[in-house]
Write a structure and sequence with these properties.
The complex is a heterodimer of chains A (about 80) and B (about 150).
Chain A lengths: L1 E6 L1 H7 L3 E5 L5 H9 L3 H6 L7 E4 L2 E3 L10 E5 L6
Chain B lengths: L1 E5 L5 H9 L7 E8 L8 E8 L3 H16 L4 E7 L1 E3 L4 E9 L2 H18 L2 E7 L2 E4 L4 H8 L3
Parallel strand pairs in B: 1-4
Antiparallel strand pairs in B: 2-6, 3-5, 3-7, 4-6, 7-8
Classes of the chains: A alpha+beta (about 80), B alpha+beta (about 150).
Chain lengths: ~80, ~150
Amino acid sequence: MTVRVLYFSWLRERIGVPFESIETDAVRVNDLLVELRKKGERYNLAFTQTSSICVAIDQELGDMDSDITEAEEIAFFPPMTGG
Amino acid sequence: MKLSVQEEPFFPDGKISHFANQNLETGAIVSFLGKVRSDPENPLEYMLIEHYPGMTEKAIEKMMGQAVKRWNLIDCLVIHRYGKLTPGEDIVLVVTSSKHRREAFEAADYLMDFLKSKAPFWKKEISQNGEAWVESKEIDEVALERWK
């Protein structure tokens, strides 16, 4: 399946693009992260510390174990700092 | 309920007075205005606020709905800006209305706590010393625990 993957804040800066289409058979967010890390040093560096990374699946907050088999849009970002 | 996620500045006095005059059952209105502040030891030149269009609106509307239900609010308003903001500019306005003051106070407090760490915004500060993403604070996470 093809998913649209988005990056925000310093993740976007480290990876170098705000979004991209990814071909994947990943079942969970963690599986997708393993695949992304293999894409190169920039990805590996960006996803070193996944404990400080949040994920949204189709614009709803999820976690690294969330099922993504039906997902169309997956976003990775650091903890939010609104307000 | 009214939400606006916008780049352009807003006029808080006008927003609050318009909100205040809508319903005759309203006995209490609480407003909170968040501003860009500078630090004298490391003066801020400007701040860049990034957000996740689509999710931002969904997440805030959800928390507004929860606040209305939990405190039986008559109404609430949230305005949150993104883009480039300089010290002294307004970032966020939260206004709540209810029959009695306690509900409006608590709901505004709740909405601000959620906006701080559950709405997809990220702030970057640019000063003479360089630029840095604002890190989330543990105190903001702890604040959320109060509402469980």
